[in-house]
Design brief:
The chain is α+β, with helices and mostly antiparallel strands and 332 residues long. The chain has twelve helices and 13 strands.
């Protein structure tokens, strides 16, 4: 078995908000180690420096499968779907979801519309452009809300200030986010309560991994319990130091069944393939909401998705093999 690992070359001109893209190199190291253990030969190709040259290398590659770790192209998260599309056009089998599912998952507004259409609960939301151009009044917004870039992943653009409780502060914060990320901003009802994620692996059947709960420890007064950029990526931040993960989550069977049912529904309607992670929140009344559909969760050993797989009895090298097998089967 010959494997080509592809990853996104990080654009050095990107701002601090996008430094998390450098984390892909840890995933490359993890997958490389697993392939060595499996006895597979492999090469590594960075994508995003010279696209024309890199596509030519793909065309002439003798790899049986691409292990796709491209999370962005030239600092743009949404362009990861374009690379998946290029692999499809070239007829090269690759791990993870296809172009269509990836572009849906990276666009939070389209994902939410699809969830609503299929009666999968997700927090009510408001389009930033409707507020900007006066089609929607601030009086129509139900506070508290959380403001997110609509086409980013990895908690990019999500900070403590993203949770807005007072109507008179929304305008200024929205203006700030638009200056940073453009008009593609999602304003969503903030769900106070517990946060969980459910990973899925394989295809036909799709197997749920053990449910994990995200805990936020003893954050100082005034901090919101959210998976912010700092909590995920800033090792020296208070939010990161207070971060906790419990897996399997300590929940009753009724809640477990609800989380898996809604997470599976989200996975299937978006069309994820091979693997994926669904993030959910449960409010203080016990209502479940899907808050994110991730087609490309971090595959670095020890991180959230691989950790839940390991707890579910799937060692890391076996996890990598399952993803490769799914890629080969999809081509057939």
């Amino acid at each position: 078995m010959k494997v080509l690992i592809t990853y996104n070359i990080v654009d050095e001109s990107i701002g601090d908000d996008y430094l998390c893209h450098y984390g892909v190199m840890e995933a490359v190291e993890s997958v490389s180690s697993a392939l060595k253990e499996l006895g597979y030969s492999f090469t590594i190709l960075g994508i995003g420096d010279d696209i024309t040259r890199e596509i030519k290398q793909l065309i002439h590659s003798d790899a049986d499968v691409v292990f796709n770790l491209c999370e962005s192209i030239k600092g743009k998260s949404r362009l990861q779907a374009c690379f998946a599309g290029a692999l499809e056009l070239l007829g090269i089998p690759y791990t993870g979801s296809d172009f269509e599912a990836t572009i849906l998952a990276i666009d939070k507004r389209k994902t939410k519309a699809l969830l609503k259409k299929n009666s999968i609960p997700t927090p009510v939301d408001w389009d930033s452009r409707s507020l900007i151009y006066g089609k929607t009044s601030l009086d129509d917004v139900d506070f508290p809300v959380i403001i997110k870039p609509a086409r980013e992943g990895g908690s990019i653009g999500i900070y403590q200030s993203s949770v807005v409780e007072e109507r008179d502060k929304l305008g200024d914060i929205l203006k700030d986010r638009i200056e940073m990320y453009g008009e593609q901003i999602l304003i969503e009802r903030f769900i106070a309560g517990r946060e969980f994620y459910v990973g899925f692996l394989g295809d036909d059947p799709i197997c749920p991994l053990p449910i994990a709960e995200i805990g936020f420890g003893a954050l100082p007064k005034g901090y919101k319990n959210i998976m912010s950029y700092q909590a995920k990526w800033d090792l020296d931040s208070i939010e990161r130091r207070q971060f906790r993960r419990t897996c399997p989550a300590e929940i009753d069977n009724s809640l477990k069944e609800q989380l898996i049912r809604y997470a599976r529904g989200a996975y299937e309607v978006v069309g994820l393939y091979g693997y994926g992670r669904i993030d959910l929140r449960v409010d203080l009344e016990g209502n479940v909401y899907v808050i994110d559909v991730n087609a490309n969760p971090d595959i670095t050993i020890g991180q959230g998705f691989p950790l839940t797989a390991e707890i579910g009895g799937i060692p890391y090298p076996e996890l990598i093999k399952v993803l490769i097998d799914c890629a080969i089967e999809r081509r057939v």
